[in-house]
Structure formats: structure tokens, C-alpha cells
Amino acid sequence: xxxxxxxxxxxxxxxxxxxxxxxxxxxxxxxxxxxxxxxxxxxxxxxxxxxxxxxxxxxxxxxxxxxxxxxxxxxxxxxxxxxxxxxxxxxxxxxxxxxxxxxxxxxxxxxxxxxxxxxxxxxxxxxxxxxxxxxxxxxxxxxxxxxxxxxxxxxxxxxxxxxxxxx
Length: 167
Hints:
Layout: E1 22-28, E2 41-51, E3 57-64, E4 66-69, E5 72-75, E6 79-84, H1 85-89, E7 94-101, H2 103-115, H3 127-141, H4 146-155
Antiparallel strand pairs: 1-2, 1-7, 2-3, 3-6, 4-5
């Protein structure tokens, strides 16, 4: 899979995924969506805890997401990031549990994510469209129930793919 650029500051090589079952979440920016502009979403799970140089506990999260913004999207995997416990536990963003996934299921989700076709220069189909495509593949494969997909779609909402704009 594609290595992330340095700006993502992935620490996956130091804190990789393991074989244990893990609770997986989808997080969407903010607790609600006004319907205006983009709303970033990210799928994540905990790969561990680590203390920083000041002894403050931080959570290592592995993420699956379409990064970037309109006109400049990319997908990188695997990516693990260091987050403060406050960010993970008392986030100001919407968090929905997708359930507990085995390592095999997380790897299958990542493989589906890698196979999602997207236009990296799109200005109409962003990360919520990409995530909808991923979740539809997961429902089809039995990794996610249709009910959970619909619950997430209503809460975020995930956007339907639209035709790309012609230049």
C-alpha cells in the first residue's frame, strides 16, 4: 500500500496493528452537520497507549480515511497517529462505534478502502462519498449490517456520488 507523506506523521512502523479484536469507530467533524460545505470523516481504532516526553498518556490510533480537500485527495495505508486522550475520549466530534473487528476484518476493510476508485482532483466527491462507497462494499461482504450503515448515513450524512465537473 502507499506510504503516507511526512506531513501525516504516521508512527505505524513503531506502533503497528496487532492480532487482537478492536472496537472500530467512525468519526465525523462536529456533533452535527449544517449541510453547508464539506465534513471530514475518518475510521479509526486504538493501536495502544504511549507516554510522551512529559509523561502524558497519548493514544495511538490507526486510521482509514481519504485525506486532503477538494481538488487534492489521496489515500494512504497503513497510517497510525498519536492523539491526546482528550481527542479520543472527549472529542468534540461525532463518534459512532462500528463494532468490534478482528485483525482479518480490519485488513479486509483496508483492502476495500484501497480499491475504492476516486478522482484525486474531484471538487464534488469527497471523503464522505468515498466512505459511502467503502461502507457499501463492507455491507455487501457482510462486514457491516445494512442497519448500521443506515444509522451512520443519517447521523453524518454520507453523500451520494455525483458526476464530476467538466473542466
